[in-house]
Every structure is written in C-alpha cells, then in structure tokens.
C-alpha cells in the first residue's frame, strides 16, 4: 500500500477536478533547449553540500560571499528558484542521480519505534545518470567529501568507474578535493567524461577560517559545538535567548561559503588552463541549505521549509557566453533531464528511454521522512519531528502535507519565509494541490529493514562529526 495513500488518508480527488481548473496552478518551467550537439560534451556536476541559496550573494544575499560564482553566472543560466527534493544529503543526491523523488527512488529515512539507524540505501535497481552515460562510453568519476551518506554502502556509486570517498581523517576540504580531481583530470583522454564533485566546506563544522577584511568577528568556536549546544533551545522555541550565538553561526556559515567560492575559482582556473571547459556542460548546485534558527530549526534534515530546500542551480552550456537569470521554479531532480538534453540525438533518445524526462509542468515535490533517529527518541522535540512531510510546489504556491495533520500552505512570492500559513484561507487551493501531490507519489518503495548497511565504530564517529 502506498505510503502516501496510508499517510494522506484522503479520497482520490483527481476525478473531481477538471483539468481546466488546474491551469492557474501551472507555471512555465522549461528552459530553452540547447542547440543540437553533434559530439557528446564533458559533464561536470558540482554539489556544494549544504549551500543554501538564501545565504549566497549571487542569489541576492547582502554579504559578498560568492564573487566567483557571481562572475561564473554572467555566462551561465542561473535558476533563481531551484528546490531540492529533500532537506538532507542522501535523498537529495539520489534524486540528482535518478531523476526521481525520494518516495520513488527509496533512499530516505523511515519510521522506527526505538533509536536505531533508520536510513535506507538507494535500491540497486534504480537507473542512475552515471550508469546511462557510462553505456555511451563516458569515463565516470565521483569525488565525495560527504563521507557517511554518500559512501558506497548507500549505493550512490552506481555507474561510476572511479568513486573516491574521502573517508579517513578530518572532513576533506576543497583543497584536498581539488588536488585529487586535478590528478584524475591529468591524463589525456579520448572519451568524454562525467565528473561529479561533492564539497563539504559549507557543512558542519563549517570551514570558517577567518577572511581578512570580510567579516569582523572572531572564529572562536567550532560551529559543530555551537550547534550541539543550541539545539535544545532552538528546537523548543527558545532560540531568541541565544541570538548572539546564532549570529556567530550565521557568520561562520557565510565565511565557509566565501572560502568554498575561492576554491571553486582555483578549480575553474585549472580547468580553463587545460582547455577542459570548452566542450563541457557545467552544473553547480547543492543538495540542501541550512536552518540557522528559522522555524525553530537548526542544521538541516528535520523539515521542508525553504531555508533547507532552496538551493543554487547554475548551468553553463558548452560555449555559452551570455548569462541568463531564470525565475521559473525547478528541482534538483531535473539533473538527468538537463544532462540528456545536451547529448547528440541518438544518445538522447536512448538516455530518455532509461531515465524518462521529468515533467514538472504541473508542479513538483520535496519530502522529508521523519528525522535522524537521534532526534526522535528521548528528546523534548522528538514528537515534533516524528512525521512525514510532503511539499508540493506549483504556480508560486507551496503546499505541505503533514502526517500529523498539521498541513501548511504558503504563497512563496509574497511570503518567501513561510510565516503566514494560508491553509485555512485557501481550502480549495490546498485540496487541488493535495490531489496533484498524490498524483506524483505513486508506486513508493518501502524500506527493507533487513537489508541496511552495517555501521562500524568509524561510521558512528563520522555520524557524530557530521551531526546526523
Ligand atoms: Zn548534504
């Protein structure tokens, strides 16, 4: 039985809604198709883990922390309203790789009745972007700094010839990641490549070495420790008593963004010098953002508000010289579609037969299944997070269906911080969006509790370090 059918407990409203009445919900979400390519381009996808669009200067943030990305976007498409499919790492990346929502690809957390690890790996029968382009002769490589949930045991390495997870020692920062990537790029190659890079500089503990002349605060404490200390206050609605520390966290996060931006400049200068950008599709995005006290939340996972879902998406087509800002909403699950649209015609049709083009013309989905297990048991805030939340985006509106009955509805252009819940004022719209949501969440996958990865002592240490 479908998870959604179980949790929504709502009559199927499809039949009762005339298609014509939905027209007002639907936004135009298409990008211009690129010119028909004749040779397959290189594909470079960069996932800046935990980089929220709301804290990026090139997305309108007040602190100039993304000088490189801003310059890069002058010759690229910057999608102003890209949302992740989930507020945390594994389900979001699995969506980037499969073009599916978490319910469909199955890599997400699930309900447990006692504290335990509650995360399902990506089922192996999913087809991934790397698998598809691999069949076309691409060399595929991933360099992964998020060492727990993007670890091979969660099956996100499907289709990569090289799958390098920086697992030992401290969290790998961009200097180390760049060094490895450059080594991999060194040999001359005849085939095109698909290179995926995951950076962790903006994930806790933030890479917040001070930047002279930029922020006037001392980085005295590890952000991971501040987050742990603040959690009991913020999650129980007492964040206001700790505004100075929240400000400190926010400044550390902003600094980490600036530090990563600088390292991206170095990487791209290298790619340029090797001539590797000429026929390369570049996609810069993130898996989720970060709560810094908004909605009484900290870090990520936990819930589906915009701070965690609004992510950057900057796409440079091969040969593109003029930048464009695109306001149509989109989702990270579009990634395979974006890539396949850049393939020569014969490859393109084969590729779309393996991972179908994602149609978001009637809206799209983000989801959160419960929270990390440690949040749910023996914590004052456990009940609050012990629920499934499905968000549906259409025509500027966001509907949140909640398994505890606390549904929400926001008009995002008017209320981007989701402060004014319209659920009681717009019941008809909520009903229509629920029907559309249900239509998207068919055929869900159940977690296979017998088949979870074993966790070693090292894993548990890493989980602590990353705050999961
Ligand atoms: Zn992440």
Question: Could you give a short description of this structure?
Answer:
The protein is an alpha/beta fold and 468 residues long. It has a domain at 39-361: 3-Layer(aba) Sandwich (Alkaline Phosphatase, subunit A). The chain has helices at residues 3-8, 19-22, 67-73, 89-98, 102-105, 129-135, 174-185, 223-234, 243-273, 306-309, 335-340, 345-354, 373-376, 382-385, 427-440, 457-466; strands at 42-48, 77-83, 139-144, 162-165, 193-199, 280-285, 291-292, 298-299, 310-316, 324-326, 330-331, 364-369, 388-394, 397-402, 408-411.
User: What's the architecture of the domain at 39-361 in CATH terms?
Assistant: 3-Layer(aba) Sandwich
Q: What Rg do the Cα atoms give?
A: 21 Å
The distinct bound ligands, ions and cofactors come out as: zinc ion
Mean pLDDT: 88
Q: Would you report the number of β strands?
A: 15
Q: What would the principal axes of the Cα set say about the shape?
A: globular
Main sheet record: 9 strands, mixed
